Amino acid sequence: MNEKMVFLDIDGTILNGQNQIPPSTKYAIKKMKDQGIHVAIATGRGPTWFKHILNELDLFSYVSFNGSYVVFEGETLFSNPLDRKHLIEFEQVAKTKGEPMVFLNQNHIYANHPNHHYIQDCIGTMNFEHPPHHETFHHENDVFQALLFIEQEKAQWYYEKKHFDYVRWHQNAIDVLPLGGSKAKGIEALLRVVNIPRENTFAFGDGLNDIEMLEYVGYGVAMGNAVTEAKDVAKYVTGHVEEDGLYNGLVKVGLLKE
């Protein structure tokens, strides 16, 4: 089987520092699709936070919530929500400590605080507004990812709670994820269904939550702006996102010709 699939992180990989898609990235993705290469987004974001990117790039496949909700060509293949009982208990402790949270599923995003500056500051880095307030959303709905807004030095108590995994993505925010989940697990679940060999898969990323993905796929490529830990596990390192890094990386692994 010669089918190939490429997984692309969003922030720092597809999007540059201005939260824009470089022209070379748009060109590269179109050329891959024209060649019959499957292209999917692989991100820590929920679908409501990257729907506009899917539309702009004409993509229909994604690994979202760091692997907890997976869609291929518009069809949901895998979902792994947070344990509701433990999430409710977790949120109750966070509330007593004065640390706000946000809860996300494939269709909705709600905060348990009506207007908190940590939420606005962190989410604002992605050019999004403070989510609407809903006290009990996570009591009544599947949640695939929660965000806890807390400084690093105060987070140890939560890290010791073994019901979830945690990834810090901002100095004042961490992702709360299903135990054992990762982009790699989401990709593994997708490949089981679509039957594309692992050795024919490629991934590009730059963050700590990309490490397992870069290790898992056949060809892991770290962006030039990636954290050291991602570069250390990648098979290749390409240029900076601001310097056509994605395009040049695709040329380097042989998926595009200059």
From TrEMBL:
A Pfam cross-reference name:
Hydrolase_3
Q: Which GO terms describe its molecular function?
A: hydrolase activity
Leader sequence residues = none
Q: Does the keyword Hydrolase apply?
A: yes
Q: Which domain of life is it from?
A: Bacteria
Q: What is this protein called?
A: Cof-type HAD-IIB family hydrolase
Q: Which NCBIfam families match?
A: Cof-subfamily (TIGR00099), HAD-SF-IIB (TIGR01484)
| Keywords assigned by UniProt, alphabetized | Hydrolase
InterPro entries (alphabetical):
Cof, HAD-SF_hydro_IIB
